[in-house]
Every structure is written in C-alpha cells, then in structure tokens.
Amino acid sequence: MWLRPRASDGADSITNYVNPEKELNAGLWSLFTGATLFLVLRLYCKITRRHGLWYDDYILVLAWSMLLLTDAMISHQYATGYVPTNGSKWDDRMHILINISSCTNVLGQTWSKTAFGVTLLKLTNRYQQWIIWFCIITMNLWMVVKVVFQWAKLCDEKSYDVSYRLDFCIDKTFRSDFKEAGNIYNIIMDFVFAFFPWWITWKIDMRKSEKIGLCVAMSLGVIVAVVAAIRVAWKDEGNKRDPYYYQRNGISNVWYSSEVAGTILVQCIPVLRPFLREVQRSFTSKRLASEGGTDHERSWAWTVSRKQDSTISSYPHMDLKALEGTGGTNGLNFGFNETKISSNSGLELETIQELGGEEKGGVTRGRSVRTVTSKRSEHFF
Asked: How far is CA 19 from CA 34, 65, 83, 292, in A?
C-alpha cells in the first residue's frame, strides 16, 4: 500500500537518506486536527439540537479512531528508525508496525466512506438502497482481503518467510495489483456516492440555486476522490532508491492520511450549516433590533419522515423540553418558519425562513409556525 519496499531488499547501505520526519508530522497532525475539530462540531450539533446520533456517526467515529492510530504509528516509525542511518536495516518490530499502520489506514478509508453510504440509506428509496448496499458490502469485503494479504508471505521471497506472517504465500505482483485495484475502487465509490444527492433531489420542487447548493454540500467527497486519483497517478511513477526515497514515502503517507481525514471532514460540513446559521444570527441580532426591521433569510435541512400530518407552533424562548412527546423536539425551531417540500420517497427538505417579529424591550422576538408532515421526523442534518 505504501511506497515502502523492504529496506533489506537491495538497499544501498551507504546512501544518506533525507529524513522528512518534521514535515511528515506537520502534515499528518494538521489533517488530523482539522478532521477532529469538524467531527466534534458535528457530534455537538447533533447532540445539543436533540437530533441524536445515528449509525453513520458511530462509524465515522470508528474511522476517526483508525486515523488516530495510523498517524500515531507512522510518527512513531519515523521517530524510531524508519529512515535508515549508517547502513542500518529494519528489524521485525518495524515491519510489524508498518503492517499494522497499513491495515488501520485501509480500515479508516473504508469505514469513512461506509459512514456516508449509511447516511444515504436514510434518504433513498428501496431501489437506490440496493445500489448503496452493494457498494458498502463490496468495499468492506475488499478491505478484509487487503488486510489479510498485508500479513501474507510473498512466494519466493525469503525475507517474507517470518513467524509473524500468515502461513500462506501470494504472488508479489498479484498482491500489488490487488491493492491498487482496491484504491481505484474506493475512488469510484467516492464518485458514486457523490452522485446520489443529485439523483435524490433533482426532481424536488425547490429553487435551483438552493438545489445546487445542497447537492454541492453533500457531494464534497468528489474532492477526496480527485486527491486520491492524483495520489494513485503519482505512485505509478515509482520510487527509486536515491537520497529522497524516504522523503517521497513520507509524502505518500500524508496523501493516504488526507483521504481518510478529508472524507471525515467533508461529511461534517453539511451538518454544521445550521450551527453556522446560528452563529450568523447572533452577530446580526443587534443590527436587526436597532433597525427594527424584518429580515428574511432562507436555509435548508434534510429530514426523513413517516407520512402523518400535524402542525406545531413554537416560540424561540420556549423550553424545548415542553415539546417532548409532540414530535417538535426533532424539528428544533429557533425562531424560524419552516416549510417542507416532500418527494414521493418520503424525503423532505426544509426551507427555513427567518422572520422578524414584534419588538419588545428593544429586542425583536420572532414567532414561527411549523408544518410537519409526520409526528416523528428524523433530521439528516
């Protein structure tokens, strides 16, 4: 998976290699920090707004834990002799660490994409769900086989005939081709999943600008796919044994980490939109109060619901606990007027409009009436 031929296989003992440890750690942990920040905000928004966590959130946390393990082990490798000095060679400990970090990276790649597939399952009809399930199952099966192959011996390679490897061998070229095919398949899955939001929403009756904005927000995984495709093309150029051999390996490690971190990050951005709207409203509230005017702004949020009709009136100063048992807690009104547009599949898109209200004590207090198509509405974002 990595650009890491074994150091004992034809290595030049007198080569002085460039050690990219500082640059590597800067890249790995910057990506990890960004992914962690966005994931924490995603979970915070869902918990505090009483949407609750779903399976996709738990899978995303699992992918994040794999990213943490991968980055920690790679940093440890470079700090404890990954780049040979004075003709030194890797010991069994280093080979085991490399295998483990390769496996955790594969798990992180697959599970981060699986999380988005599970998210899409809440929004699609039965026919579309079959396609998503096929993608999820095949990705995870490929992951399992790649992990097993990582620990297999290579036929006719004496350096791989060691005790910590599984007691069977595979052809070296076949293993390399299988891993590359898995990377390409993951890229294809990114594009497939990015297509689904457009497929789901294109026939919904809503403004074109809002439709495009929503689809773009949910299709940011295309960016990750493009980055991964560039990485695969760059890897195909090979990595010759010169003083910059391990520096290029370090760059490869950052590329692989960016795929997992990027997949986590882009799934959190759409969820944070209501949170950012609240931040924006807090900054503009004083201006609206001083002008005494009415401000109309619109936003949107995904919902999935069962078909029953009810109407709920709510006020921005009302305790949300008062709405428990009525279905209103899942909707989360914050002085908004929400209009839902439904499709035949049960998917709903809430167009949220902020309303000015009567001014009392120098503060504009808004009132909203919310028409709900179901007694229980599960919010996607």
From this structure: 25, 27, 6, 62
Write down the residue that tokens 């095949």 correspond to.
138
Given a contact cutoff of 8 angstroms between Cβ atoms, the answer to whether 16 and 263 are in contact is no
Q: Which residue has the tokens 């007694």?
A: 375
The torsion region of residue 81 among left (phi > 0), alpha (psi -120 to 50) and beta comes to left
Question: Which residue type, as a one-letter code, is found at position 276?
Answer: L
Express each pLDDT in 299-328 by its tens digit. 444 444 334 333 333 333 333 343 333 333
Q: Which two tokens stand for residue 233?
A: 């093309």
Distance between CA atoms of residues 88 and 85, nearest Å = 6
CB 332 within 8 A of CB 352: no
What is the rounded distance in angstroms from the CA atom of residue 110 to the CA atom of residue 127? 23
Distances (CA, A) of 176 to 11, 99, 103: 20, 14, 15
What are the CA-CA distances from residue 260 to residues 31, 215, 270 (Å)?
9, 21, 17
Residue from 378, 223, 358 nearest 294 by CA: 358
Per-residue pLDDT tens digits for 141-156: 999 999 999 999 999 8
* 3-class DSSP assignment, residue 280: helix
Residue ranges in 86-171 assigned as alpha helix (H): 92-121, 126-150
Residue 340: DSSP 8-state: E
The bridge status of strand 363-365 relative to strand 358-360 is antiparallel
Bridge pairing between strands 377-379 and 363-365? unpaired
For residues 275 and 271, give the distance between their C-alpha atoms in angstroms, rounded to a whole number: 8
